[in-house]
Amino acid sequence: MFRAAFRRLLAIDDPPERTALAFSIGVFIAFSPFLGLHTLMATAIAFLFRFNKIAIYTGTFINNPFLTLVPIIILSYGVGAFILGRPLSIPDEGLELLKNPKIFSSDYYRLLFVQSWAIVWPFSVGAMALSVVCSLLAYPLTLRALRAYGVHKRHRLSRSDTD
């Protein structure tokens, strides 16, 4: 799936710098903590800045529910916990609430909300850190791949013109 999307990315007529920028913004969105809003964010940014939609969606869909969502969430939580100096494990109180739900108790939901911040805050911090790092890495790597493909394509076209 990713390979086919990358091939379509290579066929885009935009300048390589603009395509790499759109892809890296998509990667930023993919790692952001705004789960469930990634596609909407990518669409809005693509229309607002007139980016190629294939490029931004390819970057955004690195985070997909079938293959990468769970590892990205776990990695985000771990990075955030590390940055915040918190233990990597979920607090015992939070685990206890999940193991023994009391769905008819208002106290249960209040405690669940309070305990959820022990998970949400490290996840959010880690996700934003990964967004920045991964998108900054994605731009030069994508730009290099697009330029190499352009050189290869021009070389192949010039050889076919001389034949």
Task: Walk me through the structure.
By secondary structure, this protein is an all-alpha fold. Helix content is 77%, strand content 0%. The protein has helices at residues 2-10, 16-31, 38-49, 53-60, 69-84, 92-99, 106-162. Helix 3 packs antiparallel against helix 4 (53-60). The relative contact order is 0.15.
Number of domains: 1
Q: Please report which band the strand proportion falls in: under 5%, 5-15%, 15-25%, 25-35%, 35-45% or over 45%.
A: under 5%
Globular, elongated, flat, extended or rod-shaped: what is the shape? elongated
Uncertain spans: none
What does the main sheet amount to? none
Class from secondary-structure proportions: mainly alpha
Can you count the helices? Answer: 7
Give the mean pLDDT. 85
SSE order in H/E notation?
Answer: HHHHHHH
* Fraction of residues in helix: over 70%
Calculate Rg over CA atoms.
Answer: 21 Å
What does the oligomeric state look like here? single chain
Distance between the termini: 35 Å
Strand count: 0
What descriptors fit this protein?
163 residues; elongated; 7 helices; mainly alpha; single chain
